[in-house]
Predict the 3D structure of the following.
Amino acid sequence: MSTWFTLMRDACRGLRARPWATAVAVGGLMLAQAACVLVALLAVALSDPDPAIPAPERVVLLDFKGNLPGEQNFWFSASPLVFAEMLKERKVPLELISRASGGGLDIKIDGRLQASYLLLADPDLVPLLQLPSLQGDLRASLARHDGIAINIDLLRKLWGELPPEQALGRRIEAGGKTYTVSAVMPNIDARNPLANPGALASVGEAMAMVGYDSQANTRTPAQREALFVINGRVFARLAPGATAAQVGGWMRAAFMANPQYAKLPAEWKANGREAAFFRGLPLTELPFEARGVELRWQLLGAVGLACLVLLLLAAFNTMNLHTASLLQRQRETALRRSLGADGPRLLQLWGLEVLLPLLLAAAGALLLAWWLAPALAQWMGLSAQHPVADPLPGRVLLGLGLSVLLLWPLTLALPAWAALQRAPAPALQGRTASEGPWGRRLRQGLLTLQLCGSMALLGLAGVLALQQQHLLHLDRGFDTHNRLWLGIVMNPDEVPQMAPLIAALRSHPAIQHWAFSGMRPARDTEGEIDLHVSASQHKQVLRVSTVSSGFFETYGMTVLAGDPKLGSSTALSSAANAAGEDGEAKLVIDAKAARLLGFASPQAAVGAQLRAGGGFLQEGKALRRVVAVVKDVRLESARDAARPQAFLLSEAPQWDLTVHGPDPVALRRALDEIWAAHGPAVRHEIQAADEQLAEVYRQEQQITSLLSAIALLAVGVAMLGAYALVADTLRRRRTELVLRHLHGASPLQIALSVGREFAWPLLGAAALGLPLAGWLGWQYLAGFEERIALAPGLGWPLATAALLTLGVSTLAAARHLRLAMGLRPVEALG
């Protein structure tokens, strides 16, 4: 015990003797480890299923992917709900097969509509997913025709601080129907597969559940039995002996046995072609396979790799500092050896000197990560209810401990080996040895890796930053500046008539243009598609959006031919069918659609009649008359190909309203005043169109910001490595530099002589880091349909990274060069 106490005391004394080096080592490792822990916390939070669900690997989601000819097909993480009944009828080995479908519910209370998220579910979903209730029987509630279960947030929205038990039996009115509160639930766990963060965020986490077969389900029998319509999710538990791999086969057999299968278009099934694909997705795999999560995991993967690079650079820096420390302590080491300390005893001492900073760094990293995790999770778009670092997952703590165990020998082995090679006698005589040519080359090699890592991260971050700016300023055929969007949080089919509001919009001086629409052009990157056929029998699938005639002026779209206002219906028609008195819907298309439909020019398309409205992207009989053609429009994300666009005209109020004016402050004030005076008594949201556009590329912006931060940390670590190398170089060559100065060498010549120490590390870093950054940047840009030109998109960031690395190395050497220039001969030669 006394031996270890002595070693600990000596190790602490040694660390206190070089506080700057200890602080640098601890600080660099702490930041790098904290970054790694944060990424690990996010990965665990996003991948873990709801812990309340027993054996989640045995609970499967029925997944569906259509195989439409000529279309981009993908897994929906959902399926036609008819599969629940089909699989029950076939008696496949699945238990508690249950349907779930989301929607909205506008509850009337005190004359005002309160919006909430509505989930229609089968009663068996309660035991399947172990859904809890605070009051009442949730499963029995879902079996009632008029029963409704509400969560705590909706309870507070409706009746304030009313105790949950007093809510039971109360009646609420919604959609012309009366429901009886028969259960009160806690807010749903963010990791539960029923959670819908986007929908819940828009209604303040307020949620209600009703039975799928209750009065709230207004779907017709045909809609419930639709075979090729993605209208919800089906969950089930695998029976003993069954596997998730078998589920796809059961679904395929049921699909092909359904009478509706024969009604699918013949070309979808010709020559053995599969009309759709199926699979059973265990809940443990759902976080990785759900639609839309690929980019998030790419983000985490890229940032995680960058954090590992940063950790490795920090470890190299610690190794360099420890090597320099042992070189400066050669006389102390020689004295210890002469007094009987053998190699193992010295290794124990040096091991403690390395281990203590590692443990201190790990503790600081854990505390820093725990403190930053909630803010980072919120920035990443996770709900406040999503557990991230409270409590800290055991896997993350284990990983941090393993990193310490791996870094310990990595940062100790080479410095200790070099120190043990020194003969004690010369050091006792005052003649300390240098690390030798191989030692210097090793340290130059480590510096090369540090500079290479920082250069690669800087270059890649620059590519991402340029692409981000390109995405935000891409010509989409419409403008988002000085546009405000107002969204009504209610059922879109129940948007009331708003004649006074429309009159106020038309007359207010701060509003130049306004329009209704069924979508947000800057935010909604997916939409309904329909096959259109021209008189010349050209067939083309167009993306269809419903808008009012002022939409094109409001968003600054260029009209190439015709006039959208001439095609607007004078009567307020439904948003689903903007047909005028002649029975034709009025349509505006973009130039891309006009070309693909066979028109020689935009003018030739005006007045043409198109046929559309067929199911399954087949020819329909609905007539649509083209009244105008606008410049090419891109409503899709830059990651996807731009579809040809069609806009159905309707003057009916819709749940998206956009206003445009020259002064954004006055515009916001006018919109608030008009809505307060004339808007319906429902919840609404207001957002700038520029912000909506930025949200589309939010994950790109996040990865750019995170990589930039990590790259700057890597630059700081590399700067410390260069600083340590030049300090040691000048210590070794002190006498040589003074003699050269005495013999007439200019400061520039001396600086160039010292600079040769950095030549090979810089050249090596450029040879390795710049091609790596260029390849990674090219791989990133390849994921976009619209991307910055490769020459400036890669050239400028790589050149900037190289120049910045050179500048950092020069800055690291400047102080010691200045000190060397000020040395007096007696100091160096004495």
Summary: The chain is about 50% helix and 15% strand. Residues 56-283 form one domain. The CA atoms of residues 449 and 623 lie 66 Å apart. Confidence is low (pLDDT under 50) at residues 569-581.
